[in-house]
Amino acid sequence: MRRLFAPLLVLSLCAAPTLAEEPPPKAPHCLSTSDIENLEVVDDYTILFHMVGGKVWKNTMADRCYGLGFERAVTYEVYGGELCGTTQIIHVMRRGSTCVLGPFEAFSPPPKNAEPAHSP
Predict the structure, then answer these.
(1) With CB atoms 3.0 to 4.6 Å apart as the test, which of 62, 105, 107, 110 could cross-link to 56 if both were Cys?
(2) What is the spatial distance between Cα 66 and Cα 54, in angstroms, rounded to a whole number?
């Protein structure tokens, strides 16, 4: 009787070395209004705060802010030179909707030369 032996292959499961990634910057609770370059309204839930120096902070409101995405303009009162997440009230211009900002989080815009994804 003939026996066939298949060679046994043993792989070492070692973690491949990875490049150290920088952790995203810690999101502030408040933004200094003097450092806000401009606001970009994305939709009824989202505003991007473009800062002097190029950093962008995203704010997603807990509840829909009706008319924000259409009007794309807000007003707010500033106390102490800061705009604070989770407590700051904003008003949609011409609609009068009153909304509360959510927490700020770091945002990295997609590269400007990125091609839009095409669906089949």
Answers:
(1) 107
(2) 29
Which residue from 120, 118, 88 is spatially nearest to 102, judged by alpha carbons?
88
Query: What's the residue count for the chain?
Result: 120
b/e sequence 83-95, b meaning 16+ C-beta within 10 Å: bbbeebebbbeee
39 C-beta neighbours (distance < 10 Å), count: 16
Can you tell me the distance from the alpha carbon of 104 to that of 46, in angstroms, rounded to the nearest whole number?
10
What does the domain layout of the chain look like in residue ranges? Answer: 30-107
Six token digits for residue 45: 């839930």
Please state the separation of Cα 60 from the chain's center in Å: 8
